[in-house]
Amino acid sequence: MRADDIMYLVMYKRLAYGAWMGLRKPEKEEKKGNVKTCWTGKNVWVCALAACGFLVLPAQAEDMILSWKGAEKDPHPCLYVTAKDVAAAKAARKDLDALAAKTAFSGNMEEAIAAVLLTQNPAAEKEVIAGALRAMDGMIPVGLADAALATKTITAEERASLVGKIARACYMVNDPRYFSPDAPHASMCLNMYTTAAFYRLALAALIPSHPRAKVWFDGALAELQEQLDDWVDPQGGMAECPHYSMVIFDQWMGAFVIARNANAADFGQLFNPKLRKAAEWFGNISTPRDPVNNGARRLPSYGHTYFNESTCAFGMMATLWKGRDPAFAAHMEWLHREHGSFGAPGILSPYPAFMEYRSLFLQSGVEPKVPAWSSQYYQETGVQLRNVMGSDRETTLYMIAGRFHSHYYNDSGSIVIWGKGRELCGD
Fold first, then answer.
1. Does pLDDT of 366 surpass 80?
2. At what angle do helices 190-206 and 156-174 cross, to 10 degrees?
3. Predicted confidence (pLDDT) per residue in 136-168, tens digit
4. Fewer beta carbons within 10 Å, N or C terminal of the chain?
5. What is the mean pLDDT of residues 166-188?
6. What pLDDT digit, counting tens, does each position of 233-271 carry?
7. CA distance 213 to 254
């Protein structure tokens, strides 16, 4: 098995676990405010196994539409970048000649995709097409498939095969036995619902001419918008611990970029004020500069949040929001640099959104500015006390308290204290 195949299977393990857990008969379901918690024994392995070719879903395969008129006219790339973005990147990049001249990419799909989109490199196109066709049998590499369908050298047979695999995956992820927030599938953590909805939206966006694509897309977008409404408190605190809230947040960003590029209403929710508030919560609760983390800020290690975990989310938000709110984007860029210009949303979790495209969103060109944030009460999440922002003498106290408590331990009132730039008390 190739290294990138293993990577895709690791990416898929969260949905695999969810599918297996949903197979059992529900035993108990409870609702806490707007956050539903379901308790059963089995749900998402069934569809993961189906995706990997080990199991055939009894989903009336004869009713699946796997080829249709007009599929060859669907625009690509269409997910994270569009033809307009590609043209802008071509004008700005200085490495086009080097990309065009490369003849091997050694599995570096991010570089291969850049070479495809920016230079139509034949070697890159061959690798991307082969990679997308192979990976769609075991995972859902939506960005790779998008690049493959944008190539000039893909044959009619290869296009039909890839489009058919995308359509089959759409049926799979929209099957209620796969993952449904309206059914008592299991004691899933909230981020798993986001992952399922993200794939529903992204896959549908790849084949907008499919007779069912609009229903799939609109349903997933509505679900993601409902999550944003319900899982972010009025001040921006999120429903899971910082690490798993970031797993949610990153997929929200990716899904809303896709929705914006698909011309969904309200810019696909990309500029929803709650998304901004959530980003500011991550920023305000970030620790002061930590010598143990190479002098960079990090997320506080509450609940199932890892030690020394920085994030690139602020750099992404700076790029995405710079045309919408330059002052906010400047704050995000400052935080991105304070987090050490980290290149990933976090550590030790799969982050399917923006896969192989993330670096395109981490050079905002925005001049950074220190946010003038102070102490903040988060209605459902906790409270952050601080003296200043942007000083080597920062003193902060973050306490968790409230209804939002997914992926934490069985505690409330736990505190993290920093005094004059030093950690005095950890979780």
1. yes
2. 150
3. 887 678 999 999 999 999 999 999 999 999 999
4. N
5. 76
6. 999 999 999 999 999 999 999 999 999 999 999 999 999
7. 18
Give the separation between CA 294 and CA 423, rounded to whole angstroms.
14
- Looking from the CA of 341 toward its CB, the CA atoms found within 13 Å total 6
d(C-alpha 78, C-alpha 101), whole Å: 25
What is the bridge-based pairing of β-strands 35-39 and 422-425?
unpaired
Summarised one tens digit per residue, pLDDT across range 368-384 is 999 999 999 999 999 99
Query: What are the C-alpha distances in Å from 411 to residues 151, 231, 305, 402, 415?
Result: 52, 19, 15, 10, 10
Residues of the chain with pLDDT > 90: what percent? 75
Amino acid symbol at 135: A
Both structure tokens of 237? 């605190």
Quote the CA–CA distance of 289 and 296 in Å, as a whole number. Answer: 5
